[in-house]
Amino acid sequence: MQEAVIRSALAVVLQTKVADAPLTRVSGGNIHQCFRCPLPSGEVFVKAAAPDSLPMLSSEAAALQELAGASALRVPSVLGVGKNEGCAILVLEWIALSPPSPAVEWQLGERLADQHRVTNAKYGWRHNNYIGSTLQPNVWSTDWLHFWRTHRFDVQLDLAARNGADARFLERATLLSALMDGFFTSYIPQPSLLHGDLWSGNRASDERNRPVVFDPASYFGDREVDLAMTRLFGGFSPEFYAAYQRAWPLDAGAAARVDLYNLYHVLNHHALFGGEYLQRASAMVDKLLAETGH
């Protein structure tokens, strides 16, 4: 994407003059282009995408503002979101990020527990959003199992079928969907405010050694969803888990639901990237069905 187009969008969204200075490309996920941009008021972080990606960027902005309102973990402040004819952009404050130390991970565990104590009468969220580029339905529900099965797991099964998943996988996964009740026989979670995409690449330390989280896909749901995902792609430190458990111990059956919740994200990676994710999902389905006796 041409830098002139991004600078023009910045001027529109922030309603300010943008100097013709070079932008610095930075890492920021697999979907959007991300830049460090100098402005007279200071540097900003910009996600840029095609104009039709504005709903994705707008939903991310809304999630960041929701998390900021919890006053638990630091998230980048939203400075603006919008588009021009050439691109859509999300503008955030620039934070100098670094890998978290064990002490920062401890803080992250404590403060994530504080975030999860922000609750709601129902599961879901006020509008749909995205997990990666996949639409994530957030229909309000009073039944967590129904919400997870209908608006998370079964959505991914439909995508897997459309993306050519084999008959054995679809049959086994459909059986798991029907038997999912067995993982919730005596467990009814409260609707907690979730980050929604809390893998190791979406957390860091700021310049004052405070934990920062970003790239959320937030909604109100079982807090175990966030904790499960922290174990999916690399995992967090022992200090993180110890601090969270000390702040708010998990249900005794939480370990049995880790794969159930992470299966959603593995299937979403299959939908987005293909590759060997379906094999991983198939192994998870077989493991979960074995726990139900099938």
Give a short synopsis of this structure:
43% of the residues lie in helices and 16% in strands. The protein is an alpha+beta fold and 294 residues long. The strands form four sheets. Strands 1-2-3-5-4 form a five-stranded antiparallel beta sheet, with helices on both faces. Strands 6-7 form a two-stranded antiparallel sheet. Strands 8-11 form a two-stranded antiparallel ribbon.
CATH superfamily of the largest domain: Aminoglycoside phosphotransferase (APH), C-terminal lobe
Taken in chain order, the helices and strands follow as: HEEEHEEHEEHHEEEEHHHH
- The total domain count is 2
Per CATH, the class of the largest domain reads Alpha Beta
Give the CATH architecture of the largest domain.
Alpha-Beta Complex
The pLDDT mean sits at 95
Which outline best applies? globular
H/I helix tally: 9
Radius of gyration: 20 Å
Low-confidence stretches: none
Cα(first) to Cα(last) distance is 51 Å
* Extended strand count: 11
Fold and architecture overview:
With 294 residues, the chain is of the alpha+beta class. It folds into two domains: 91 residues, Phosphorylase Kinase, domain 1; 190 residues, Aminoglycoside 3'-phosphotransferase, Chain: A, domain 2 (Alpha-Beta Complex). The chain is built from nine helices and eleven strands. The chain has a five-stranded antiparallel β-sheet, sandwiched between helices. Strands 6-7 form a two-stranded antiparallel ribbon. Helix 6 packs across helix 8.
